[in-house]
Design a protein that fits this description.
This protein has 123 residues and is an alpha+beta fold. It has two domains: 79 residues, no CATH class; 32 residues, no CATH class. A two-stranded antiparallel ribbon has the order 1-2. α1 packs antiparallel against α2 and α2 crosses α3. The chain is flat, with a radius of gyration of 18 Å. 15% of the residues are buried.
């Protein structure tokens, strides 16, 4: 969602405002997520070494998740978060820029032509 907003704002937006709006939109949208299901998870063990620039030698685990959600629910969540975000903006100029950038965001966000295919480790 942040990337979609960022693409819409590429032409001449105030960078600080764009960053703030991206973060706010991502945060607001989380409140409206309904029907999402974890499809697959992936754990990754990472090693950090002082000799390569890390603050200290350590190992960390990172988890990534592929989440599935139908397009109708995605559009609803984006529309709700867009409305909430725009409703919280008081400055008319900022609100106008945000409305332009967010005009088609719910459609763009759900524009996948085909479902994402996930290959298992066995494939």
């Amino acid at each position: 969602m942040k990337n979609t907003y960022s693409e819409a704002e590429q032409n001449g937006a105030d960078e600080d405002v764009a960053d703030y709006m991206q973060e706010q939109l991502a945060t607001e949208s989380q409140a409206f997520i309904v029907g999402a299901k974890v499809h697959k998870t992936y754990w990754e063990k990472r090693g950090y070494k002082e000799s390569l620039g890390a603050d200290e030698n350590e190992k960390k685990f990172h988890c990534h998740a592929l989440v599935k959600m139908n397009k109708k629910a995605v559009k609803r969540a984006v529309a709700s978060s867009r409305a909430k975000l725009l409703g919280d903006i008081e400055d008319p100029e900022v609100k106008k820029k945000a409305e332009r950038a967010l005009k088609d965001i719910s459609n763009k966000f759900a524009e996948l032509d085909a479902p994402v295919k996930v290959e298992s480790e066995e494939d």
